[in-house]
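Recap from last week: sequence in, structure out.
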Amino acid sequence: MFLREYNKDIRFVKGVGPVVTKILSRLGIKTVSDLLLHFPRSYEDRRHIDKLADALTKSSINAVVRVIAQDSIGWGRKKTLKVYVEDSSARAALVCFGRNYLSSVLIPGRSFFVSGKFAYKFGEIQSTSFEVEKCSTSLSDFARIVPIYPLTEGLTQNLIRRIVRNAFLSIDKRIENEIPSYLAVKYSFPGKYETLRKIHFPEALEDIEKARRALAYEELFYFQLVILRKRIKRIVVRTSRKTIPFSLKKKLLKRLPFKLTRDQLKVLAEVEHDLFSEHSMMRMLQGDVGCGKTLVAFISALSVIEAGEQAALMVPTELLARQHAENAALLLEPLGVRIAILTGSISGRERKYLLSSLKNGDIELVIGTHALFSSDVEYNNLGYVIVDEQHRFGVMQRVALTEKGSSPDLLLMTATPIPRTLSLTAFGDLDISWIREMPKGRRKIITHLAREGNEDKVYRRIDEELDKKHQAYFVYPLIEESEVLSLKDAESMYKYLKEEVFKKRNIALIHSRIPEPEKSKVMERFISGSIDILVSTSVVEVGVDVPNATCMVIEHAERFGLSALHQLRGRVGRGKDQSFAFLIYGNKLTEDGIKRLKVIMETTDGFKISEEDLKIRGPGEVLGVKQSGFLKFKAADIVNDADILYSARKDAENILNSDPGFINPENRVIARVLTEAPPFDDTFLQGG
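Predicted C-alpha cells:
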C-alpha cells in the first residue's frame, strides 16, 4: 500500500515540529503517505450525548459537563489532580493520573465535552480514563465517530487526530487509485480519496467496514501479485521427462493390503501431472499425522525412478530417516528399487562406497538428513527432491539440495496443517495439495482432561495400560526447574516418576540438551519396547511411529499451543489398540488456555484445529517467531478476510495469465505501484 503523490517528509504537515517528528518516527511514520496509512485500531461512537446519571449503566458515555472545582489526591511526586464536574443530572470526579497539566485547562466555570468510562468508587462517580474537548468546539465536531489510533510515548489521541486532519486537508481529491478501474467497478470500491476519508473521518459505522475492505483488497491484491510473480520466476522450463507406463506404481498398488484414500489418489494425480509437465514442480503437501503423505511420496518417486532418474527424501532426524528407509525397503525393494540411507553418522569406507554409488547411479532412492546436500555428495541424475517436515529446514537448505540436480522437482511435506488463508499468503508461490481424509480403520484417540492435583487418577490409568504391555509418553513444558515459572519440568518429573510412582517400570528421559547419539539410542529402545515410559519435552512432537505407545500425558497442557497439543497427541494411536491422551491443566487458566483445551477436546481434525489456532494466536505465531513480521498488513486480516484474499488472488492470477508484462493500459498502474512502492516484508519467502 503506497501513496506516490504524498511521499514528502512528515515535517511539512502543519503542527509537526522536530519533537513530534521524532515521536512519529517510532511508529514508522516518516512521510505524509505513512501518516495517511496509519489506520485507526478502533472507533468510539460519540454521536449520542448522554447524561452523567447514565454513567453507571453504560460501558462509556459522552456528556456535556461544567467544571465546578479542582482538588488533588496523594502527596509529593504522586500528587494527582482531581476535577469535579456536573451536568443537570449528576456530579462526577475526573481523576487525572499522569495529567496534572489539565489543571490549566479544566478551569472551574468552563464547559467541556467529556467521553469516558465511569465507575462508582469511594462514594462518588469517578473516571480515570476519559477525553475532554472544549465546548468552544462545535457539537458536530465532538458528537461524531472518533478514530482511536495506535500510539507511542509522547503522542496523544487528540494530537494525532489533529495532525491526520491537517495532512488530509492538504491532499488532492483526485488522488490516483492504485488498483485498475475495472476492479474498482467490479467490487463497487470508492475512490482512494473517499476511502481514506471514510477510514479517518467516518460519518457512519458501515462506512468504516466498506473502506477497510477496499484497502484490504488492495493490500492483498498486490501481495498476491508479488508472490505469484515470484512463482513465475521460479518456474524452470526443462526437457520433458520421458514417457513411462507407470509399471512400478501399478506393481506397488497391487501389493498393498489396502486401497489408497480418495485424497491420496487426488494428490498423487496432482504430483504426477507436475512431474511430467514442462516445468519443474514446486508443491507443498499438507496432511495430518497418519494420513499417508509418506506413502504418496514413495509412490510418486517410483515414476521418476522408472524414468531413469534419482529421488532424494530429506528428513530432520537420523532416527526418522532410518524408519523411513526401513518402510521404503519393505515397500520398494521387492520392486527392484535400489535404496540407501545417508546421514552424518555414516563415515569411512561405508560413506565412500555410498557416495560412489550415488554418483554412478546405482542408488535410485536415497533417504537421509541434511547430509544429503553435503559438499562431497554428487548425484548421477537427481530428478526429484522430497522434504519431510519442511518447516524444520530453512529455505537455503532446501535450495542446496535442489542444486544437486538439474532443476529437480520439489515436494515439501508437512504434518502441521496450515489454514488455507495462511497457506495462500505465506506459501502462495507454491502449488498446494491437501490430504484431509484419514485411512479407514484408524481409531480415534480418546482425550481426557484432568485438573492439576488429580494426577494420581491419570497415573493409575497409565499403569493399567502398561500392564497390557503398552507404552506411554509424559511431556512437560520445561527441561529443568525454573526460578521464574512454577511449572513441572522433565528432569524433576523423570526422577519423581521413576522413584515414586512407577518404580517397577523402565523409564527414560529425552530432551533437546541430550546429545543426538544418546537421544537416538533412547528412542530406539523405546521403539523396541524395552522402555515403558518416555519422559520428554515437546521434542517428541515430530518423531517416529511407535505403534505400541497408547498413552500421551501432557502436563501443564494449557502452556502448549493448539498445533503442538495436536501433534503431541498424534504420537499415539499409530497401532491397532485404542489410544488415550491425558491433558493435565493448571488451576490458573487464561482465556486463551480455556479456548485451546476446549478445541482440542472437541475435535481431532488437524485442519479445524489449525484454523482455531490461527484465530487465537494470529499468523505470526502460527508460522513461527521468525516469520512474525511477515504478515503485518495495515488493513487486511487474513483470519477474517478469506473471501477478499481468494478474490484478490484470482484477480492477480488472471492479470498475470493474460498480461504478464502489464502492457494493457488498465494495468500500467499495477506496474507503477510494483516498481515504486516500498517492497513487501517477504523475508519468509526469501530465507525461511
